[in-house]
Design goal:
The structure is a homodimer of 160-residue chains. Chain A has helices at 2-17, 23-32, 39-49, 86-90, 111-121, 146-154; strands at 52-55, 61-64, 72-74, 80-82, 92-98, 101-106, 126-131, 135-140. Chain A has 160 residues and is of the alpha+beta class. Chain A has two domains: 2-66, Orthogonal Bundle (Arc Repressor Mutant, subunit A), CATH 1.10.10; 84-154, Gyrase A, domain 2 (2-Layer Sandwich), CATH 3.30.1360. The longest helix of chain A is centred in the first third of the chain and has 16 residues, at 2-17. Chain A binds a DNA duplex (30 and 30 nucleotides) through helix 3.
DNA sequence: AATATTATTGCATATTTTTACTTTTTGTAG
DNA sequence: CTACAAAAAGTAAAAATATGCAATAATATT
């Protein structure tokens, strides 16, 4: 959906530039940009974007983006691809799962950089990582599936 | 006051060990611990703790702690100071469990010190640790519970 | 192209969360 | 101990948010 995607972008933009305390408010901002939708749809959008309502500086509630949203662009064949610098993914070599643990092999010395990126994304599917020189040990959430973890990692390592 | 503080602690403990999707649910958990309060009060507690409602792994809503709050008290000049000495809190920031693994996040560079302390205690609930820069990966004994591990760790990290 | 499948949305409503107001509890100073 | 002030908690109602269902639009399949 073209409309939905640009609307999600608009939401990201608004939330990262101004303080929004309720969905109603956000709805108004979106209206100014020409987006016409109901609160119900907005609720679903926010759910999908994993936006959270926190407590701002003056004790006011505020909606904020959580994980760093990856900007994407349209690939040659029309599909959407993450925009990731090659440096970030070159190190990756393989991933294997066992129970709630995944082991990622990288090129020598790339492990800690990769782990750093993974940690930074705060994926709910991943509770933490430890890096050696060419190995990242990754602990999955109890209820996460391999698929979910792979999907999360794909935002960092497109060709995983 | 006394009651409120221990209740806030209980909330922190519950939220860091189990998935809670609504205030109603959390209220039940608190009741199990002997805390009797209304949902309105809980809403205020959560606001004060800056707890946020996010979207968990399976798309379900979930309440989570944001930044682990530092315990503070009023200093001589009226400003607020952390109560625990850096040594005591050893950079601790958060702990998460998955299966027989716990992942402890610390401030940068604190992980190995913390792991060293944990290892030194020879807790029967913990068979070993590995530390990165800001992450300690902890392997639990087969028969240890999350609660038992937390209780053990509390001797090192009072405000865990 | 026609049909089946899936995704998106609005509407209405249920659920959840916040808040204004009041009462109770707690701490403090006389 | 009593009175006062401040903090905490309950009550009830408002506000905000989530969701089941049905309609519609987009996408895929034959």
């Amino acid at each position: 959906m073209k409309i939905k995607n640009s609307r999600l972008d608009a939401i990201r933009l608004i939330l990262s530039t101004q303080e929004v305390g309720s969905q109603e408010e956000l709805l108004n901002e979106l209206a100014k940009e020409g987006f016409k939708l109901t609160q119900a749809t907005l609720s679903r959008d926010l759910h999908q974007l994993r936006v959270v309502k926190t407590v701002g500086v003056k004790g006011r509630y505020r909606y904020v983006l959580t994980r760093p949203q990856q900007y994407r662009h349209e690939g040659a064949s029309g599909e959407m691809r993450p925009v990731v610098s090659p440096q970030e993914s070159v190190g990756y070599q393989s991933i294997k799962f066992s129970g709630n643990i995944a082991v990622i092999h990288t090129r020598p010395s790339y492990a800690s950089t990769l782990a750093y990126h993974i940690d930074g994304c705060d994926f709910p599917e991943i509770i933490g990582t430890i890096a050696g020189d060419d190995t990242v040990l990754l602990v999955m959430s109890e209820d996460a599936t391999k698929g979910a973890v792979l999907r999360a990692l794909r935002t960092i390592i497109p060709n995983i």
